TrEMBL record:
<protein>
    <recommendedName>
        <fullName>Secreted protein</fullName>
    </recommendedName>
</protein>
<dbReference type="InterPro" id="IPR046112">
    <property type="entry name" value="DUF6049"/>
</dbReference>
<keyword id="KW-0472">Membrane</keyword>
<dbReference type="Pfam" id="PF19516">
    <property type="entry name" value="DUF6049"/>
</dbReference>
<feature type="transmembrane region" description="Helical">
    <location>
        <begin position="633"/>
        <end position="651"/>
    </location>
</feature>
<keyword id="KW-0812">Transmembrane</keyword>
<keyword id="KW-0732">Signal</keyword>
<keyword id="KW-1133">Transmembrane helix</keyword>
<feature type="region of interest" description="Disordered">
    <location>
        <begin position="661"/>
        <end position="683"/>
    </location>
</feature>
<feature type="signal peptide">
    <location>
        <begin position="1"/>
        <end position="21"/>
    </location>
</feature>
Amino acid sequence: MLAMLFAVLGLATVVAIPASAEDVPTLSVVLSQVTPVSPSATDTVTLQGSVTNTSSKPVTNVQVHLWRSSDAVTDGEVLTEVLASDPANPVGRRMLQPENIFNITDVGAQPSQAFPSTKASPKKTFAPGESADFTVRAPVQGANGLGFATPGAYLVGIQVRGIPEDGQNQTLGRARSLVVFAPEASRPHSSVATVALLSSRPSRTGDGVFADDHLAGELTGRLRQLVTLARQPGVTALVDPALVDAVTDMADGYRVTGSTSPTTQGQQAAEDFLTQLGPVVSGGAAYRTLQGGIDVQLAVDSGHPELVELAAATPPTGHLLAKLPLAVVPADLKLGDNARNVLDGIKPALVLAENAASGTAVQRWSDDAESALVVPRTSIHDGGPGPDPTRSAPQLAGRLQATQFVQARPMVSLVSTSAQASAELVDAPWRTRTPLPALVAASGTTERFVASPQPAHREDRSWLDEVKSGRADLTAWGELVAKGNDAERLTQQVLPQALSTSWRGDRAAALRWLVASRSQVGSVLTSNKVNLHVVSKFVTSSSNQEVPVTISNGLPDPVHVRIAFDSENPQRINVADTDVLTVGPGDSETVKVRVSTHANGEVGVQARLTTPTGRAIGTPRNLTITATQAGRVGWIIIIASGVVFLAGTAMRIRQVQRERRGSANVAGTTGPMTRPACDGDDG
């Protein structure tokens, strides 16, 4: 009946009809509760909410009526029409029993139920800007019931009647929602796959250091709701390894950038979250996502597919997620065909994407039987129907359950927000949840994923240059302190998060986080903690002579460096680069470098420290070398130069050592995120 009615009305709306005063809402209605969303035949449905006079004029005789349509929605096409329908369509029926009505103002001899009202001080008008809460209810069945007869989704809602100034009694506000009537004889009715995505915007910038405290808030809000949902029978969890690392760090104690003292605000919440997450991970229906929720399509389009491979690396032995299969969740659930080769290389167990040419819930990602494609239905969380507002908690739950109830094939719901989790946690006795592994195993699909066309990313090249520079810094740091495994782990942690989908295009925020994450490593490479000491002028008296050069290490780790020389005129004077030298923590090392002279004269030479592969460290030093055959005078100058250099170097080294003893160890020298996440880490 509803399908025919909407078809007729669809033809009628071809002709434009001017809006009448009846169509202009002057009272805004917001639903706060509709309980239960899936009532049984013996239940009473209660609607609660608020009404606000959004007009500029007072209204009298304001009365809230429970409204309902007795037509069952039993298929997806009709549900789509209902969700898009005009608020006055279908007409339905206002219910008139006392429990179905709530008086905002006095109505005739009936006093206001929202405001104090007496004969001496009646509540006659609902003034502009005033708000009032209401409650109405009705049994599902019976002579004065809602009239639900057959299993299906039904429209229920509110109509607010009143008399505006200079007007007549009319409907001035509406709100609608959906409930599902599923008698016990029709249960279980529907099987769905609910997937909880546990991730958060990057905030951890170092061991125990966070850029902000938003994660602490999420652990008592959104993430707590998501992990509660993930613990429900049949729910699948997708967990970001970067989130686990950050929460583990927070549970051990942490501090927020800009604060000199630790904070405990999120510590207990972090411990509680990890306690709840443990059974989810070990329950057989969990996957790990790519590290940091990297934007796969962005990485591919910008020419950095290697970052996807980094993000896919298996966490180290002992990590909470180390044994979980890999699932890929792209930005906005959209992937282009150019990402196929990259993902084929990392062999995920699951790929979730909505932009498949077919809407089949489970498809083959590729010819490789190890990978499956799952197509979530994001519109399931859109709320409605109208009028606005359409995303109240009961509307989200009603839309979700109605869509799941009328489905004709398996459906996947991906849940990532607090509101979505709350809607999924609303009880639906007719619903059976199927874990994704079971859904994939039972599908037997032969349909292969074909992506609908997607526009390529147009990314700021300077931002991508920052990401590349960050990788170079991390690699150089690993060489300098001989912690290649730690450097690789840092690279795996930091760079994918820099391209996280959670930044939502906010490159400024992402850049601030990246700079903070690499700053401690970068400062080691550019500071004077590892320093080179050379005499500013040196005189040689033979074609091959040795010059003393000293390296001081103010770090708590041994460093591995080379000294490289660049002569302005190597045909006249040339200085040989050194082999790799190791200088212990807090120590200094003086070496002699060979100067080769081919002709007399003065030549400028720049000396600089590098990592073993040539990455420059610290500040380069300039010296002037003079080649001469001046005999005794030349030797006197040479010896004097050497004495002055060695004395000055010794004084500088003693000064550095005093500074080290007087202060804490260099912050971050072991890298921004090198705390082992578990037993068995390398390094």
